[in-house]
Amino acid sequence: MKKIRILALDIDGCIAPGEGHPADLDVLKAIRDANSRADSDTNVPHITLCTGRQQPYVDLMAQMTGITYPVIFENGAGLYLPREYDFLFHPAITREQTASLSRLKDLIRTELVAPGKAKLQPGKEVSLSVYPAGESTVADNIDQLNEIIGRESMDFFLDVSVMCVNILFPGIDKGAGIRWLAEVVGIATEEIGAVGDSHGDVQSLTASGFAACPANAVDEVKEVADYVSRLEFGDGVVDIIGEVAGRNREAAK
Description:
Blueprint: E1 6-9, H1 25-38, E2 46-49, H2 55-65, E3 71-73, E4 78-81, E5 86-89, H3 95-113, E6 118-120, E7 128-132, H4 138-151, E8 157-160, E9 165-168, H5 174-185, E10 192-195, H6 202-207, E11 210-213, H7 219-224, E12 227-228, H8 233-252
Parallel strand pairs: 1-2, 1-10, 10-11, 11-12
Antiparallel strand pairs: 3-4, 4-5, 6-7, 7-9, 8-9
Helix pairs in contact: 1-8, 3-4
C-alpha cells in the first residue's frame, strides 16, 4: 500500500450520525487536530470530505475541522477549494444535463412536493436529494421518480440511501470525485483513502488506495473495506485516522 496522503471522509453516518442528529464536537476537534499534525508529520494524512452534502455545508465543516485540501461535495459533482474559496463543477457535466436537471426539479416540485409526497433538500446545484414526506417512503419515492424520469426520457442515476434518494448524472459519483480530487491535487488515487458507510460510498471506496468504514456501515461497504473499525460513527472515524497513520509509518520503514 502506498502512503495515504489524503483521507476523504463521508459525513452522514461517519463523522456524524446523520441528518437531524447532533455531531460529536470531540470528533470534530480530533479531525482538526489531525489536520494540524499532518502539516509536520507526513505519516498523518490530511483530512478532507467526500459527501453528498452541498457546498455551504461542507464550507462550514471545513472551517470547523481545519480542512485546506479540496472537498468533494454533491456526490462527486462538485469540488470546493477552501484555500481559494472557489467552487468547481465536474467538467463532464454539460449544459444540456443541467437544463434537464432543472426541468426534473420543477416536475418533482409539482408532482411530489406539492402533494406532500416528498421534500427536496435545498441548496443543491448539480444534483438533487429527495426525502419522503407524509405517508410516502423512500421506496415510494424511487417508484415515483422512475416514472417521471422514464416518462420524460431523461437520463439520471438514482443513488438510494437510508433516508433519501440522490439524483445524479450518469458517471458522476463519489468515485469520479476521488479521481477528480487526485487530478486536481496532482497525486495518484492510490495515495487517497476513503471512509464511508452506505451504498453510495462504494464508488469512492473502490476508487481509492485504502478503504475503511465505521462499525455501523452496511454489509456492502464492509465487504470492500480494507479496514472496518470496531467503533461506530465519529469514534470509528477517529480510530480510522489513527489506523492510517500507523500503516503509513509502517510503509515508511
